[in-house]
UniProtKB/TrEMBL annotation:
GO BP: citrulline biosynthetic process; L-arginine biosynthetic process via ornithine
EC number(s) per entry: 2.1.3.3
Aspartate/ornithine carbamoyltransferase Asp/Orn-binding domain location: 171-324
Protein name according to UniProt: ornithine carbamoyltransferase
GO cellular component, one term: mitochondrion
Domain Aspartate/ornithine carbamoyltransferase carbamoyl-P binding: 1-148
Residues annotated as transmembrane: none
Matches recorded under Pfam families: OTCace, OTCace_N
InterPro entries, alphabetized: Asp/Orn_carbamoyltranf_P-bd, Asp/Orn_carbamoylTrfase, Asp/Orn_carbamoylTrfase_sf, Asp_carbamoyltransf_Asp/Orn-bd, Orn/put_carbamltrans
Source superkingdom: Eukaryota
Length: 338
């Protein structure tokens, strides 16, 4: 729902929060020099944010709890066994009550309709922490990571010859694997920022883009910059960045055997990317958690992999989004959604 201008604004804010907080949190990196006075505002001071998680989480939970804490607020973690929701109480009543006592709701749900319903009945902002269709904050973290590593994508010069703050050039971003919530937010975001996407998913109907997502992709004009096929090697042609997600998303565990058969040939490896014609300098992203059958250890733990900075950036980007939507920090209404 954010315009390109608003996204860029959030990325810049994430970057400045990270620059302000990291030296403060890790003063040993200052070699004995006192940490600077924190320059971010305590915008959640005296405020409570409800974190409703109906599914497991490591990154989304830790990033959101720590982000609220750094903004001076209190995070109230509400797991599926903690509250009446789904057993004794409806979503409508839950959203009405929780929003009457808190300043924001961050919710990880099953079906996407659940987050829509929560937003309908909540009197405070509701942010999607992952639903069946979308995982918006993951894409913001991925974008920050690509921008931070912009120099790695410049040809003809080593990383050390580059200045730290290069603009990110238009990239070819290849995603192979399942059409997941993580991919869907990339589809509506990367093309609007000038990047091309190449997607490779197995041919069965279950692995194609869901209609509501593709409708939004077309509405935003992103489809013009997306190639989609079923051959992973075709999808990797010219890739500057290679991305995959889990082949078995939370809730699909019963389909494991079938999925492992259907995804044969989609494991990200050096050989597959070379044979597919990826840019020799390609880099790798994965939202995590990761299984070895999706990407081998050589890639995952090798020099191409940006997965751990990507994981950490969940915190700084979430902090910027919370500051804006729960803390009252203002996102200017820059242009439309294009
Ligand atoms: N990437 C991500 O959302 O990870 P978690 O499921 O651990 O939160
Ligand atoms: N597609 C995965 C993402 C996990 C972060 C899932 O929904 O389980």
């Amino acid at each position: 729902d954010l315009s390109v201008g608003q996204l860029r604004f959030l990325l810049a804010h994430s970057n400045s929060l990270k620059s302000a907080c990291v030296p403060h949190l890790k003063p040993r990196q200052n070699f004995g020099i006192s940490p600077p006075t924190p320059s971010w505002t305590q915008s959640l001071s005296s405020k409570t944010v409800a974190l409703l998680f109906s599914k497991r989480s490591t990154r989304t939970r830790v990033s959101s709890e720590t982000a609220v804490s750094l903004l001076g607020g209190r995070a109230l973690f509400l797991g599926r066994d903690d509250i009446q929701l789904g057993v004794n109480e409806s979503l409508q009543d839950t959203a009405t009550i929780i929003s009457s006592m808190t300043e924001g709701i961050f919710a990880r749900v099953g079906d996407h309709s659940e987050i829509e319903e929560m937003a309908k009945y909540s009197s405070v902002p509701v942010i999607n922490a992952l639903s069946s269709l979308w995982h918006p904050l993951q894409t913001v973290a991925d974008l920050l990571t690509l921008h931070e590593h912009a120099k790695l994508f410049e040809e003809g010069a080593s990383a050390s010859q580059k200045t730290e703050h290069l603009p990110l050039r238009p990239l070819t971003i290849s995603y192979i694997g399942d059409s997941t919530n993580v991919l869907h937010d990339m589809l509506v975001t990367f093309p609007r920022l000038g990047h091309k996407m190449r997607v490779g998913t197995p041919p069965a109907a279950a692995y194609q883009c869901p209609e509501p997502v593709w409708n939004r992709v077309k509405e935003l004009g992103c489809d013009k910059n997306i190639w989609w096929g079923s051959d992973p090697q075709d999808a990797l042609r010219g890739a500057d960045v290679v991305i995959t997600d889990t082949w078995i998303s939370m809730g699909q565990e019963a389909e494991k055997a079938q999925r492992l058969r259907d995804f044969q040939g989609y494991q990200v490896t050096e050989a597959l990317c070379r044979e597919g014609g990826a840019n020799p300098n390609w880099k790798f992203l994965h939202c995590l958690p990761r299984k070895q059958y999706e990407v081998d250890d050589e890639v995952f733990y090798g020099p191409r992999s940006l997965v751990f900075p990507e994981g950490e950036n969940r915190k700084w980007t979430t902090m910027a989004v919370f500051d804006a939507l729960f803390g009252g920090w203002h996102i200017p209404s820059l242009a439309g959604t294009s």
